[in-house]
Amino acid sequence: MANQITKTQQTLKSAEVKKKFEEVLGKKTDGFVASLLSVVGNSNLKNANANSVMTAAMKAATLDLPIEPSLGFAYVIPYGAEAQFQIGYKGFIQLALRSGQLTGLNCGIVYESQFISYDPLFEELELDFTQQASGDVVGYFASMKLANGFKKVLYWSKEQVMAHKKKFVKSSNGPWRDHFDAMAKKTVLKAMLTTYAPASIESKMIQTAITEDDSEHFENARDVTQDEPIISIDESVNSEVKNEESYQESNEGVLQDNAIEELFPVGKE
Question: Where is this region: Disordered (predicted)?
Fold first, then answer.
């Protein structure tokens, strides 16, 4: 196992691999590769082959998302002998904020005690968050506010989420079994961003993130999206800004705010 880790790290240190990352990240390469080597040395990737680790990491690099697990933006995690890329809840928020057109983004769980009504015709959701969360979970929401004043709230009942799971996830094991609410929130957020995100280069990055996220492609994959409490829009935005600043400072200026120009082709979900 130790030999496999060493082999993977040696592969990632090679000039050929570094060149590939430089084509995408430019001056950010050294900091990103250092984070990747740390992840490989301190995770369960010891059995994953080097090529799959590099492929998963390249997806994160293309989206310009750090892979340090503590930051919660993106992850490279094992799936047997293969590594997989997963974007975190915070990663979707970060990509959306980069557009400069978004002033708020949030998602959460709706309990029976909080639900009042939902009008699917005008997509008007009425909730009472003054009520203590009790009873069954009846649905999940995602909300978005743009700088031009446009607001959007998307609500899926638990039945809708279950139908999505049945369509796209063929296994009864994995993240949907162990972290259903986290996966449900992430799914509704993805659905809203796919349909209503501003038509800009950054929204294309969001579409790419949705396509490249392996959490639904690997039937027995382990989801790493943590269950997070419902927070206000301002708290959500400020949290992402602080995390990004912390990441940049930890790499001693190596990370620069240059945009990623080359993206993976966008496919179907």
Answer: 246-269
Is the separation of the CB atoms in 146 and 198 below 8 Å? Answer: yes
User: Angle 8-87-108 (CA atoms, 0-180°, nearest 5)?
Assistant: 150
Instruction: Sketch the domain layout of the chain as residue ranges.
Output: 2-87, 99-211
**Does this model's pTM top 0.70?**
no
Question: d(Cα 104, Cα 96) in Å, to the nearest integer?
Answer: 9
One pLDDT digit (tens) per residue for the chain, 269 residues:
555 667 788 888 888 888 999 999 999 999 999 999 888 887 777 778 888 999 999 999 999 999 988 887 888 888 778 888 888 777 887 888 787 778 888 889 999 999 999 998 888 999 999 999 999 999 999 999 988 888 999 999 999 999 998 888 765 655 677 778 888 888 898 888 878 877 765 667 777 787 777 665 544 444 444 444 333 333 433 444 444 444 444 443 333 333 323 333 333 33
236 neighbors 106 (Cβ within 8 angstroms): yes
Side-chain half-sphere of 202: how many Cα atoms within 13 Å?
19
Q: Cα 80–23–63 angle (5° rounding)?
A: 55
What tokens were used for 213?
């996220």
